[in-house]
Design a protein that fits this description.
Elements: H1 2-20, E1 34-40, H2 47-66, E2 75-81, H3 86-98, E3 104-107, H4 111-116, H5 118-124, E4 128-130, E5 145-147, H6 152-155, H7 157-166, E6 172-177, H8 180-195, E7 203-206, H9 214-222, E8 227-231, H10 234-246, E9 253-255, H11 262-268, E10 276-278, H12 295-309, H13 315-330, H14 342-357, E11 360-364, E12 367-370, E13 386-390, E14 393-396, H15 397-400
Parallel strand pairs: 1-2, 1-3, 3-4, 4-5, 6-7, 6-8, 8-9
Antiparallel strand pairs: 10-13, 11-12, 13-14
Helix pairs in contact: 2-13, 10-11, 13-14
Amino acid sequence: MKKLILVVITACLLVSMVIFGACPKKPAEELSPYKIAFTLEMTGDLSYMGIPLKEGSDWALAKINAAGGVNGRQIEAIYYDGKSDTAEAVKNAKKMIDVDKVVCCCGFTSVESAMASVDTCKSAKVTEFASCPVCVTGEPVEPWLFDINGDQKVGSIPLLVQNLVDRGCSKIAYIYLNITYGQTGMRIFEEDMAKQGLTPTTIENYDWGTTDFTPQVAHIKASGADGFLITGLVQDTVSVIKTARDLGMDFPIVSDYAIPSPEFIELGGQYAEGIVTTGPRTLVAFDLPDSDPSKQLNMEVYDWYVAKHGFMTVFCTHLVDQVNVLALALDTVDADLDPTKADDLAEIRVQIRDGIEGVKGYAGLHGNFNYSPTNHSGQDVGCYPLLVVKDGEWRLYDAVK
């Protein structure tokens, strides 16, 4: 009798499988998530960037996952502290790929940490999606490296040189922090000055950790400059400006785009007033015209961050855009591929890379994104507007000039 019952149950199951399908799909909430991991500078010299970067990714991921995720899968985030150290960033990248089995390596606060990790990601055929400007427009792209920042060629230095020229400056000097960010800026500055038919009065540099900028600034003053541009980070840029003003240099000073933050105004005080830079629109969302296609998103992020902290910083915007672009790329991935299966994971990683190159028309916080096989930052010339410190706050330059 037991044998007969077993035969009947088996027959019924076979009939059910034919009628209703042999392998019903799991409900969306049971599907394995897409894992992504971030290395961010949560401690060390660049923690003032890393902490708001993480807040930006948390905010964007919460919205995406609350709306159902992508392809019916949630996006699971894993975070590592880069400790403002390139060796730590590389170690993190290896762990993301080999242990966490992520679909994409994200974050990378500094150019140094991002570039140090390129070979690790490329050899594993995993996209490295940086939150710093590593892809310079017009130069050959690394196939597995992307970012969301307009580089200094399209988003900063030529716009700032033009601002100085428009304000009557013709004898322009330059000073830069002697790291990759500054060295790249110096090269782009020289190229743009040549295009303008101008010759720099002097080009100065300083090392990380410098506290006395008197020699370099004195050289700028002696060169006869009537304006100069700084490529540095927040604290050293403030020190350069203070030194210049204390030496009686009252002409226009502009700065590369690492400074638009509340920390710059707090540290600079009266010395920050009138300093022009470029940066994401979110910092001045309230000044944007209603015709700006990104205004709604910018205001949403601005209101959220200010409500939480009482001020706005652009650093959170980097990972809002990064996560949103990544979600658009994931949406192009074959939904049947399972990220917990090795072969499927390898294919997902390839499809994400191709998917980012196909992202077009995303009106983000950093501009209107249009990636391609030759543009891995997705940005074009003029992606960032000019910003200025006016009455102790950041404002859109065109709104207050």
